[in-house]
UniProtKB/TrEMBL annotation:
<protein>
    <recommendedName>
        <fullName>Endoplasmic reticulum-Golgi intermediate compartment protein</fullName>
    </recommendedName>
</protein>
<dbReference type="GO" id="GO:0006890">
    <property type="term" value="P:retrograde vesicle-mediated transport, Golgi to endoplasmic reticulum"/>
</dbReference>
<keyword id="KW-1133">Transmembrane helix</keyword>
<dbReference type="GO" id="GO:0033116">
    <property type="term" value="C:endoplasmic reticulum-Golgi intermediate compartment membrane"/>
</dbReference>
<keyword id="KW-0813">Transport</keyword>
<dbReference type="GO" id="GO:0000139">
    <property type="term" value="C:Golgi membrane"/>
</dbReference>
<feature type="domain" description="Endoplasmic reticulum vesicle transporter C-terminal">
    <location>
        <begin position="110"/>
        <end position="270"/>
    </location>
</feature>
<comment type="function">
    <text>Plays a role in transport between endoplasmic reticulum and Golgi.</text>
</comment>
<dbReference type="GO" id="GO:0006888">
    <property type="term" value="P:endoplasmic reticulum to Golgi vesicle-mediated transport"/>
</dbReference>
<dbReference type="InterPro" id="IPR012936">
    <property type="entry name" value="Erv_C"/>
</dbReference>
<keyword id="KW-0333">Golgi apparatus</keyword>
<dbReference type="GO" id="GO:0030134">
    <property type="term" value="C:COPII-coated ER to Golgi transport vesicle"/>
</dbReference>
<feature type="domain" description="Endoplasmic reticulum vesicle transporter N-terminal">
    <location>
        <begin position="10"/>
        <end position="58"/>
    </location>
</feature>
<keyword id="KW-0812">Transmembrane</keyword>
<dbReference type="InterPro" id="IPR045888">
    <property type="entry name" value="Erv"/>
</dbReference>
<comment type="similarity">
    <text>Belongs to the ERGIC family.</text>
</comment>
<dbReference type="Pfam" id="PF07970">
    <property type="entry name" value="COPIIcoated_ERV"/>
</dbReference>
Length: 309
């Protein structure tokens, strides 16, 4: 038992222990960044990108994002028609991979005639419930040029390379990263529901603030009789709590106190054990048996003194 307590004291001093706590989010942030990198199997010039939130604030996100035409393909390592499992990363993993980087910013070729579109960039949004969506021209919004695509031109098959909130950490994996959704239907709608939880990691004075999220997906297939807006909808909401994952270690002073208490207890227990054993021997075999070996052994001088007497 004492060995286990000693081991636990050494572990808490040298290795520490990971503590998870939830707190009310009292940090007031009016805006938050969304980092996105996705590809849609339609030409860029056919796609509308908009953000609308609960404050009725709406803006054309396409003015802040980059568009590149390319030929659509799905990398073999991507999850098809699924998303990644939702797990809170380990503290050591975050400390090793929590390197802030600038999100990619390349050229813009929105008017490309390529059959698919690569959309990427960072957009600021109000920190309230909102909806980032990708729709086709003539569906959901009225265009100034009154362009409306034919149904046969719609295809919202897509892959998501990156989707995260807050500062961009390229080595931290998110639930929607490296995922793909494939459809052969033209009037297909994908509605992602994201629940964002601010998460703070703390270890040895280093703090890394991330925004983890859970995700669920609802697919809807529309028809001319059951009309709706086909597209990709990312509906996000922010929890009023935050998660703090902290590496806690006892101080050196407390470490010494714990060791002194443990070893002091061992000494006291040993003394009481010795006394108990001594009394038990006296009760069983008598005082003479318990004190055997304590008599002084006679030497040569003692023998001579006895002869003189």
């Amino acid at each position: 038992m004492s060995s286990l307590r000693s081991f636990d004291a050494f572990r808490q001093f040298f290795g520490g222990e990971v503590d998870h706590q939830f707190h009310v989010d009292n940090v007031v942030d009016s805006t938050l960044l969304i980092n996105l990198d996705l590809m849609i199997n339609m030409p860029c010039k056919f796609i509308h990108t908009n953000v609308q939130d609960n404050t009725d604030d709406r803006f054309l996100a396409s003015e802040l994002l980059k568009y590149e035409g390319f030929r659509f393909f799905i990398p073999p390592s991507y999850k098809l028609n699924d998303h990644n499992s939702i797990e809170t990363p380990d503290l050591d993993e975050i400390m090793a991979e929590g390197i802030v980087a600038q999100f990619q910013d390349r050229g813009d070729s929105k008017d490309s005639i390529a059959p698919a579109c690569h959309i990427y960039g960072t957009i600021p949004v109000n920190k309230v419930s909102g909806d980032l969506h990708f729709t086709a021209k003539g569906y959901g919004y009225r265009d100034f040029d009154r362009t409306r695509l034919g149904v046969e031109q719609l295809n919202f098959t897509h892959i998501i390379n990156e989707f995260s909130f807050g500062e961009f950490y390229p080595y931290i994996h998110n639930p929607l990263d490296a995922t793909a959704q494939v459809t052969e239907e033209n009037l297909q709608s994908y509605e992602y529901y994201l629940n964002v939880v601010p998460t703070l990691y703390k270890k040895l004075g280093v703090e890394i603030k991330t925004n983890q999220y859970s995700v669920s997906l609802q697919k809807k297939l529309y028809s001319w009789e059951n009309r709706g807006v086909p597209g990709i909808f990312l509906k996000y909401d922010f929890d009023p709590i935050n998660l703090v994952v902290e590496d806690k270690r006892i101080s050196f002073f407390n470490f010494i106190i714990r060791l002194a208490t443990i070893y002091g207890g061992i000494i006291v227990t040993a003394r009481w054990g010795y006394k108990l054993l001594d009394k038990t021997l006296i009760l069983l075999f008598g005082k003479k048996f318990a004190s055997r070996g304590e008599e002084k052994l006679a030497g040569l001088l003692d023998d001579n003194e006895d002869e003189r007497k």
